[in-house]
Amino acid sequence: MDKTEQRRALIMAGASGIGAVLAERAVEPEDIADTILFLAGPAGRSITGQFIGVDGGFE
User: Fold this and answer.
1) Is the distance from CB of 34 to CB of 41 less than 8 angstroms?
2) Is the Cβ–Cβ distance between 45 and 59 less than 8 Å?
């Protein structure tokens, strides 16, 4: 079992504590850029002091 399969099994078993939804694809630079643009724009004005993981569901 490779690391991806191990992580998937742990998440499906609830080992992450709160569960997660996997994107089933690699994160692209555009995904990170989109998050930055969202946070820097009007829609992100009330988001402060948060960790936002752009990782496709893998921590």
Assistant:
1) no
2) no
Tokens 């989109």, located at residue: 34
In a domain, 11, yes or no: no
- Overall pTM > 0.85: no
Domain count, the chain: 1
SS3 4: helix
The DSSP symbol for 12 reads H
Of 36, 37, 41, 40, give the one whose Cα is nearest residue 52. Answer: 36
Q: Residue 15 and residue 26: Cα distance in Å, rounded?
A: 22
pLDDT single digits (tens) 9-49:
766 666 555 555 666 777 888 989 999 999 999 999 999 98
